[in-house]
Specification:
Layout (H helix, E strand, L loop, with lengths): L1 E8 L3 H19 L3 E5 L4 H7 L5 H8 L3 E6 L14 H13 L3 E7 L12 H4 L3 E7 L9 E5 L5 E5 L5 H17 L3 E6 L5 H14 L6 E6 H10 L6 E4 L1 H13 L8 E5 L4 E5 L16 H14 L3 H16 L2 E2 L9 E2 L2 H12 L7
Parallel strand pairs: 1-2, 1-3, 3-12, 5-10, 8-9, 8-10, 13-14
Antiparallel strand pairs: 4-5, 4-11, 6-7, 11-12
The structure holds nicotinamide-adenine-dinucleotide.
Length: 362
Protein backbone atom coordinates (compact mmCIF):
# COMPACT_ATOMS: atom_id res chain seq x y z
CA UNK A 1 0.00 0.00 0.00
CA UNK A 2 1.47 3.36 -1.05
CA UNK A 3 0.32 6.40 0.87
CA UNK A 4 -0.12 9.32 -1.50
CA UNK A 5 -0.80 13.00 -0.78
CA UNK A 6 -2.59 14.60 -3.72
CA UNK A 7 -2.52 18.40 -3.98
CA UNK A 8 -4.43 19.58 -7.08
CA UNK A 9 -3.89 23.31 -6.36
CA UNK A 10 -5.16 26.16 -8.53
CA UNK A 11 -6.06 26.94 -12.16
CA UNK A 12 -5.74 23.84 -14.34
CA UNK A 13 -4.40 21.88 -11.33
CA UNK A 14 -7.67 20.07 -10.51
CA UNK A 15 -8.33 19.23 -14.20
CA UNK A 16 -4.92 17.67 -14.87
CA UNK A 17 -4.88 15.91 -11.49
CA UNK A 18 -8.21 14.20 -12.23
CA UNK A 19 -6.63 12.64 -15.33
CA UNK A 20 -3.44 11.64 -13.51
CA UNK A 21 -5.50 9.86 -10.84
CA UNK A 22 -7.65 8.15 -13.48
CA UNK A 23 -4.47 6.75 -15.04
CA UNK A 24 -2.98 5.82 -11.66
CA UNK A 25 -6.09 3.88 -10.64
CA UNK A 26 -6.08 1.95 -13.91
CA UNK A 27 -2.40 1.09 -13.53
CA UNK A 28 -3.07 0.03 -9.96
CA UNK A 29 -5.66 -2.48 -11.21
CA UNK A 30 -3.35 -3.84 -13.87
CA UNK A 31 -0.26 -4.15 -11.68
CA UNK A 32 -2.05 -4.96 -8.40
CA UNK A 33 -0.79 -1.82 -6.69
CA UNK A 34 -2.79 -0.26 -3.88
CA UNK A 35 -2.85 3.42 -3.09
CA UNK A 36 -4.20 5.24 -0.09
CA UNK A 37 -4.99 8.66 -1.53
CA UNK A 38 -5.64 11.77 0.55
CA UNK A 39 -6.35 15.13 -1.06
CA UNK A 40 -5.43 18.45 0.53
CA UNK A 41 -5.44 22.15 -0.25
CA UNK A 42 -2.39 24.09 -1.40
CA UNK A 43 -1.79 27.49 -3.00
CA UNK A 44 -4.40 30.16 -3.64
CA UNK A 45 -7.38 27.90 -2.92
CA UNK A 46 -5.82 27.02 0.45
CA UNK A 47 -5.29 30.71 1.19
CA UNK A 48 -8.95 31.46 0.37
CA UNK A 49 -10.16 28.67 2.62
CA UNK A 50 -7.71 28.87 5.53
CA UNK A 51 -5.77 32.15 5.27
CA UNK A 52 -2.47 30.42 4.44
CA UNK A 53 -1.23 28.85 1.16
CA UNK A 54 0.33 25.88 3.00
CA UNK A 55 -1.95 24.84 5.88
CA UNK A 56 -0.25 22.77 8.57
CA UNK A 57 -2.74 19.93 7.91
CA UNK A 58 -1.48 19.79 4.29
CA UNK A 59 2.16 19.81 5.36
CA UNK A 60 1.56 17.08 7.97
CA UNK A 61 -0.19 14.92 5.40
CA UNK A 62 2.72 15.34 2.97
CA UNK A 63 5.33 14.53 5.61
CA UNK A 64 3.59 11.30 6.55
CA UNK A 65 3.00 10.16 2.94
CA UNK A 66 5.23 8.05 0.69
CA UNK A 67 4.89 10.56 -2.15
CA UNK A 68 3.31 13.91 -2.94
CA UNK A 69 1.64 14.50 -6.31
CA UNK A 70 1.11 18.19 -6.99
CA UNK A 71 -0.84 19.94 -9.78
CA UNK A 72 0.09 23.63 -9.88
CA UNK A 73 -0.45 26.73 -7.77
CA UNK A 74 -0.96 30.44 -8.30
CA UNK A 75 -2.96 32.87 -10.37
CA UNK A 76 -3.62 36.60 -10.77
CA UNK A 77 -6.09 36.60 -7.87
CA UNK A 78 -3.25 36.07 -5.37
CA UNK A 79 -0.44 38.04 -7.08
CA UNK A 80 -0.78 41.09 -4.86
CA UNK A 81 -0.63 39.29 -1.50
CA UNK A 82 2.45 39.77 0.69
CA UNK A 83 5.20 37.47 -0.59
CA UNK A 84 4.96 34.92 2.25
CA UNK A 85 1.24 34.39 1.49
CA UNK A 86 1.61 34.01 -2.28
CA UNK A 87 1.05 30.52 -3.60
CA UNK A 88 4.57 29.88 -4.94
CA UNK A 89 6.74 31.61 -2.35
CA UNK A 90 4.42 30.78 0.55
CA UNK A 91 3.64 27.16 -0.32
CA UNK A 92 5.95 25.55 -2.88
CA UNK A 93 9.29 26.72 -1.51
CA UNK A 94 8.48 25.80 2.12
CA UNK A 95 7.02 22.47 1.01
CA UNK A 96 10.24 21.56 -0.85
CA UNK A 97 12.26 22.67 2.16
CA UNK A 98 10.18 20.67 4.65
CA UNK A 99 10.33 17.57 2.47
CA UNK A 100 14.14 18.04 2.23
CA UNK A 101 14.13 17.35 -1.48
CA UNK A 102 17.58 18.47 -2.58
CA UNK A 103 17.67 16.94 -6.07
CA UNK A 104 15.36 18.08 -8.83
CA UNK A 105 15.06 15.67 -11.76
CA UNK A 106 13.75 17.01 -15.03
CA UNK A 107 13.62 14.74 -18.04
CA UNK A 108 13.54 16.38 -21.47
CA UNK A 109 12.25 13.74 -23.79
CA UNK A 110 11.08 14.22 -27.36
CA UNK A 111 8.34 11.84 -28.46
CA UNK A 112 8.98 10.93 -32.09
CA UNK A 113 5.49 11.96 -33.14
CA UNK A 114 6.02 15.43 -31.62
CA UNK A 115 9.53 16.09 -32.98
CA UNK A 116 8.05 18.63 -35.39
CA UNK A 117 6.82 20.78 -32.46
CA UNK A 118 10.35 21.76 -31.37
CA UNK A 119 11.84 25.05 -32.51
CA UNK A 120 14.96 23.07 -33.46
CA UNK A 121 15.23 20.90 -36.57
CA UNK A 122 13.59 17.48 -36.33
CA UNK A 123 16.91 15.64 -36.86
CA UNK A 124 18.51 17.53 -33.93
CA UNK A 125 15.82 16.57 -31.41
CA UNK A 126 14.17 13.38 -32.64
CA UNK A 127 14.81 10.64 -30.05
CA UNK A 128 16.17 13.12 -27.49
CA UNK A 129 16.11 11.77 -23.94
CA UNK A 130 18.02 13.83 -21.36
CA UNK A 131 17.73 13.90 -17.59
CA UNK A 132 18.83 17.06 -15.81
CA UNK A 133 19.65 16.62 -12.12
CA UNK A 134 19.71 20.01 -10.40
CA UNK A 135 20.83 20.73 -6.83
CA UNK A 136 17.75 22.37 -5.30
CA UNK A 137 18.40 23.56 -1.77
CA UNK A 138 21.85 25.20 -1.74
CA UNK A 139 24.13 27.56 -3.65
CA UNK A 140 23.55 31.16 -4.57
CA UNK A 141 19.76 31.07 -4.19
CA UNK A 142 19.99 30.20 -0.50
CA UNK A 143 23.16 32.10 0.53
CA UNK A 144 23.13 35.30 2.55
CA UNK A 145 22.31 38.47 0.64
CA UNK A 146 22.94 42.06 1.48
CA UNK A 147 22.93 45.56 0.07
CA UNK A 148 24.74 48.53 1.49
CA UNK A 149 25.22 52.22 0.75
CA UNK A 150 28.78 53.17 -0.18
CA UNK A 151 30.34 56.17 1.58
CA UNK A 152 31.10 57.99 -1.68
CA UNK A 153 27.63 57.36 -3.10
CA UNK A 154 26.21 54.41 -4.99
CA UNK A 155 25.35 51.04 -3.49
CA UNK A 156 26.88 47.58 -3.26
CA UNK A 157 25.23 44.18 -3.38
CA UNK A 158 26.68 40.89 -2.10
CA UNK A 159 25.27 37.39 -2.67
CA UNK A 160 26.96 34.37 -1.15
CA UNK A 161 27.44 30.98 -2.77
CA UNK A 162 28.00 28.20 -0.26
CA UNK A 163 28.17 24.44 -0.58
CA UNK A 164 29.37 21.78 1.84
CA UNK A 165 30.98 18.50 0.81
CA UNK A 166 27.86 16.64 1.94
CA UNK A 167 25.52 18.85 -0.09
CA UNK A 168 27.50 18.27 -3.26
CA UNK A 169 28.13 14.56 -2.68
CA UNK A 170 24.49 13.62 -2.14
CA UNK A 171 23.20 15.25 -5.33
CA UNK A 172 26.14 14.04 -7.44
CA UNK A 173 25.42 10.50 -6.23
CA UNK A 174 21.86 10.88 -7.53
CA UNK A 175 23.38 11.94 -10.86
CA UNK A 176 25.62 8.84 -10.97
CA UNK A 177 22.77 6.54 -9.88
CA UNK A 178 20.49 8.01 -12.52
CA UNK A 179 23.16 7.52 -15.21
CA UNK A 180 23.65 3.93 -14.03
CA UNK A 181 19.98 3.12 -14.59
CA UNK A 182 19.86 4.94 -17.96
CA UNK A 183 22.54 5.36 -20.65
CA UNK A 184 25.56 5.21 -18.27
CA UNK A 185 26.89 8.65 -19.19
CA UNK A 186 27.12 11.50 -16.72
CA UNK A 187 28.05 15.07 -17.61
CA UNK A 188 28.89 17.24 -14.62
CA UNK A 189 28.45 20.91 -15.43
CA UNK A 190 30.44 23.65 -13.70
CA UNK A 191 32.49 26.79 -14.28
CA UNK A 192 35.75 25.44 -12.88
CA UNK A 193 37.90 27.77 -15.00
CA UNK A 194 36.61 30.74 -12.97
CA UNK A 195 34.74 29.75 -9.80
CA UNK A 196 36.29 28.21 -6.68
CA UNK A 197 32.93 26.63 -5.83
CA UNK A 198 33.04 24.87 -9.21
CA UNK A 199 36.57 23.55 -8.57
CA UNK A 200 35.27 22.23 -5.22
CA UNK A 201 32.29 20.65 -7.03
CA UNK A 202 34.56 19.05 -9.65
CA UNK A 203 36.92 17.56 -7.02
CA UNK A 204 33.98 15.91 -5.30
CA UNK A 205 32.61 14.52 -8.56
CA UNK A 206 36.08 13.10 -9.32
CA UNK A 207 36.35 11.55 -5.86
CA UNK A 208 33.04 9.69 -6.34
CA UNK A 209 33.73 8.55 -9.90
CA UNK A 210 35.72 5.46 -8.89
CA UNK A 211 32.62 4.10 -7.12
CA UNK A 212 30.85 4.14 -10.49
CA UNK A 213 33.33 2.53 -12.94
CA UNK A 214 30.44 1.57 -15.23
CA UNK A 215 29.44 5.23 -15.74
CA UNK A 216 31.34 7.34 -18.25
CA UNK A 217 31.99 10.74 -16.64
CA UNK A 218 32.60 14.03 -18.45
CA UNK A 219 33.04 17.53 -17.08
CA UNK A 220 31.70 20.43 -19.11
CA UNK A 221 31.82 24.17 -18.54
CA UNK A 222 28.36 25.68 -18.25
CA UNK A 223 28.75 28.09 -21.18
CA UNK A 224 29.81 25.25 -23.46
CA UNK A 225 26.94 23.11 -22.14
CA UNK A 226 24.39 25.82 -23.01
CA UNK A 227 25.80 25.86 -26.53
CA UNK A 228 25.94 22.06 -26.88
CA UNK A 229 22.32 21.75 -25.74
CA UNK A 230 21.15 23.54 -28.86
CA UNK A 231 23.94 22.31 -31.16
CA UNK A 232 23.82 18.58 -30.46
CA UNK A 233 21.57 17.80 -27.47
CA UNK A 234 21.51 14.07 -28.19
CA UNK A 235 25.12 13.75 -26.96
CA UNK A 236 23.77 13.98 -23.37
CA UNK A 237 22.31 11.31 -21.12
CA UNK A 238 22.34 12.67 -17.54
CA UNK A 239 23.50 16.17 -16.59
CA UNK A 240 24.22 17.02 -12.95
CA UNK A 241 24.85 20.54 -11.77
CA UNK A 242 24.47 23.09 -8.98
CA UNK A 243 21.34 25.11 -8.32
CA UNK A 244 21.60 28.19 -10.53
CA UNK A 245 23.23 26.48 -13.53
CA UNK A 246 20.57 23.75 -13.21
CA UNK A 247 17.74 26.26 -13.09
CA UNK A 248 18.82 27.76 -16.40
CA UNK A 249 19.91 24.59 -18.21
CA UNK A 250 16.81 22.60 -17.24
CA UNK A 251 14.57 25.27 -18.79
CA UNK A 252 16.72 25.30 -21.88
CA UNK A 253 16.56 21.50 -22.15
CA UNK A 254 12.79 21.60 -21.58
CA UNK A 255 12.32 24.02 -24.44
CA UNK A 256 14.00 21.56 -26.84
CA UNK A 257 10.91 19.39 -26.58
CA UNK A 258 8.43 22.01 -27.79
CA UNK A 259 5.66 21.95 -25.19
CA UNK A 260 5.53 22.81 -21.52
CA UNK A 261 2.38 20.67 -21.19
CA UNK A 262 4.45 17.49 -21.70
CA UNK A 263 7.16 17.86 -19.05
CA UNK A 264 7.14 16.17 -15.64
CA UNK A 265 9.53 16.53 -12.71
CA UNK A 266 10.54 14.78 -9.53
CA UNK A 267 12.20 16.28 -6.47
CA UNK A 268 14.00 13.68 -4.38
CA UNK A 269 16.29 13.35 -1.40
CA UNK A 270 14.10 13.19 1.70
CA UNK A 271 11.84 10.35 2.81
CA UNK A 272 8.98 11.62 0.64
CA UNK A 273 9.42 12.61 -3.01
CA UNK A 274 7.50 15.43 -4.70
CA UNK A 275 6.20 14.87 -8.24
CA UNK A 276 4.74 17.68 -10.33
CA UNK A 277 4.49 19.00 -13.89
CA UNK A 278 6.96 21.80 -14.61
CA UNK A 279 4.25 24.15 -15.82
CA UNK A 280 2.20 26.56 -13.71
CA UNK A 281 -1.53 26.86 -13.14
CA UNK A 282 -2.20 28.22 -16.67
CA UNK A 283 -5.02 30.57 -15.58
CA UNK A 284 -5.57 31.59 -19.23
CA UNK A 285 -7.00 28.16 -20.07
CA UNK A 286 -8.29 26.99 -16.67
CA UNK A 287 -11.78 25.48 -16.63
CA UNK A 288 -11.94 25.11 -20.41
CA UNK A 289 -10.82 21.50 -20.82
CA UNK A 290 -7.84 22.70 -22.86
CA UNK A 291 -4.99 21.73 -20.53
CA UNK A 292 -2.66 18.95 -21.56
CA UNK A 293 -2.64 16.40 -18.73
CA UNK A 294 0.44 14.52 -20.02
CA UNK A 295 3.03 16.40 -17.88
CA UNK A 296 1.13 15.36 -14.76
CA UNK A 297 0.54 11.84 -16.04
CA UNK A 298 4.29 11.49 -16.72
CA UNK A 299 4.93 12.82 -13.19
CA UNK A 300 2.95 9.77 -12.02
CA UNK A 301 5.33 7.65 -14.05
CA UNK A 302 8.33 9.27 -12.31
CA UNK A 303 6.65 8.62 -8.95
CA UNK A 304 6.14 4.95 -9.77
CA UNK A 305 9.74 4.57 -10.97
CA UNK A 306 11.76 6.68 -8.53
CA UNK A 307 9.43 6.73 -5.53
CA UNK A 308 7.97 3.23 -5.51
CA UNK A 309 10.44 1.20 -7.62
CA UNK A 310 7.58 0.06 -9.88
CA UNK A 311 9.50 0.19 -13.15
CA UNK A 312 7.12 -2.11 -15.05
CA UNK A 313 4.12 0.09 -14.32
CA UNK A 314 6.13 3.22 -15.22
CA UNK A 315 7.28 1.65 -18.52
CA UNK A 316 3.69 0.68 -19.36
CA UNK A 317 2.47 4.20 -18.67
CA UNK A 318 5.15 5.82 -20.82
CA UNK A 319 4.37 3.40 -23.66
CA UNK A 320 0.66 4.23 -23.37
CA UNK A 321 1.44 7.95 -23.74
CA UNK A 322 3.62 7.23 -26.77
CA UNK A 323 0.87 5.09 -28.35
CA UNK A 324 -1.77 7.76 -27.71
CA UNK A 325 0.36 10.36 -29.50
CA UNK A 326 1.40 8.00 -32.29
CA UNK A 327 -2.26 7.31 -33.02
CA UNK A 328 -2.68 10.97 -34.02
CA UNK A 329 -4.47 12.53 -31.06
CA UNK A 330 -3.39 15.84 -29.52
CA UNK A 331 -4.45 18.42 -26.95
CA UNK A 332 -4.67 22.05 -28.14
CA UNK A 333 -1.11 23.00 -27.07
CA UNK A 334 0.49 20.32 -29.28
CA UNK A 335 -2.11 20.33 -32.09
CA UNK A 336 -0.81 19.96 -35.66
CA UNK A 337 -2.51 19.81 -39.06
CA UNK A 338 -4.12 16.48 -39.79
CA UNK A 339 -4.37 15.41 -36.13
CA UNK A 340 -7.46 15.00 -33.97
CA UNK A 341 -7.89 17.42 -31.08
CA UNK A 342 -8.99 16.11 -27.69
CA UNK A 343 -9.91 17.86 -24.49
CA UNK A 344 -8.16 17.20 -21.17
CA UNK A 345 -10.40 14.40 -20.06
CA UNK A 346 -10.50 12.71 -23.48
CA UNK A 347 -6.68 12.60 -23.50
CA UNK A 348 -6.74 10.98 -20.04
CA UNK A 349 -9.24 8.38 -21.30
CA UNK A 350 -7.16 7.68 -24.39
CA UNK A 351 -4.04 7.04 -22.31
CA UNK A 352 -6.01 4.69 -20.05
CA UNK A 353 -7.30 2.89 -23.16
CA UNK A 354 -3.73 2.49 -24.35
CA UNK A 355 -2.78 0.90 -21.04
CA UNK A 356 -5.11 -1.90 -22.00
CA UNK A 357 -7.43 -1.48 -19.02
CA UNK A 358 -10.95 -0.09 -18.99
CA UNK A 359 -11.93 3.26 -17.42
CA UNK A 360 -15.25 1.89 -16.19
CA UNK A 361 -15.98 0.05 -12.95
CA UNK A 362 -14.87 0.92 -9.45
P1 LIG B 1 2.20 28.63 -16.88
O1 LIG B 1 3.15 27.49 -16.96
O2 LIG B 1 1.02 28.47 -16.00
O3 LIG B 1 1.66 28.96 -18.34
C1 LIG B 1 2.50 29.39 -19.41
C2 LIG B 1 1.79 29.11 -20.76
O4 LIG B 1 1.78 27.70 -20.97
C3 LIG B 1 0.32 29.54 -20.75
O5 LIG B 1 -0.01 30.01 -22.04
C4 LIG B 1 -0.45 28.29 -20.47
O6 LIG B 1 -1.75 28.27 -21.01
C5 LIG B 1 0.44 27.23 -21.11
N1 LIG B 1 0.34 25.95 -20.37
C6 LIG B 1 0.83 25.68 -19.14
N2 LIG B 1 0.51 24.44 -18.78
C7 LIG B 1 -0.20 23.91 -19.80
C8 LIG B 1 -0.82 22.65 -20.02
N3 LIG B 1 -0.78 21.66 -19.11
N4 LIG B 1 -1.47 22.46 -21.19
C9 LIG B 1 -1.52 23.42 -22.11
N5 LIG B 1 -0.95 24.63 -21.97
C10 LIG B 1 -0.31 24.87 -20.82
O7 LIG B 1 3.06 29.89 -16.46
P2 LIG B 1 2.58 31.39 -16.11
O8 LIG B 1 1.44 31.78 -17.00
O9 LIG B 1 3.82 32.18 -16.09
O10 LIG B 1 2.06 31.29 -14.61
C11 LIG B 1 0.69 31.15 -14.25
C12 LIG B 1 0.62 30.99 -12.74
O11 LIG B 1 1.26 29.77 -12.36
C13 LIG B 1 1.33 32.10 -11.97
O12 LIG B 1 0.56 32.42 -10.84
C14 LIG B 1 2.65 31.48 -11.56
O13 LIG B 1 3.13 32.05 -10.38
C15 LIG B 1 2.23 30.04 -11.35
N6 LIG B 1 3.31 29.04 -11.49
C16 LIG B 1 3.21 27.94 -10.69
C17 LIG B 1 4.14 26.92 -10.84
C18 LIG B 1 3.96 25.69 -10.01
O14 LIG B 1 2.89 25.50 -9.42
N7 LIG B 1 4.94 24.81 -9.94
C19 LIG B 1 5.16 27.01 -11.79
C20 LIG B 1 5.20 28.14 -12.61
C21 LIG B 1 4.26 29.14 -12.46
Amino acid sequence: MFKLAVLPGDGVGPEIMAEALKVLMSLGKKYHLQFEISEALIGGCAYDETGTPLPSSTLDLCLESDAVLLGAVGGPKWDKLPVHLRPEAGALLPLRKELQVYANLRPAQVFTSLAGASTLKREVVEGLDIMVVRELTGGLYFGSKQREDLPGGGRRVVETLEYTTEEVERVVRIGFDMARRRGKQLTSVDKANVLESSRFWREIVESLANEYPDVELKHMLVDNCAMQLVRNPKQFDVLVTENMFGDILSDQAAQLTGSIGMLPSASLGGKTGLYEPIHGSAPDIAGQGKANPIATILSVSMMLRYGFGEDNAADALEKAVTRALDSGYRTADIMEDGKVQLNTSQMGDLIVENLGVSTGGS
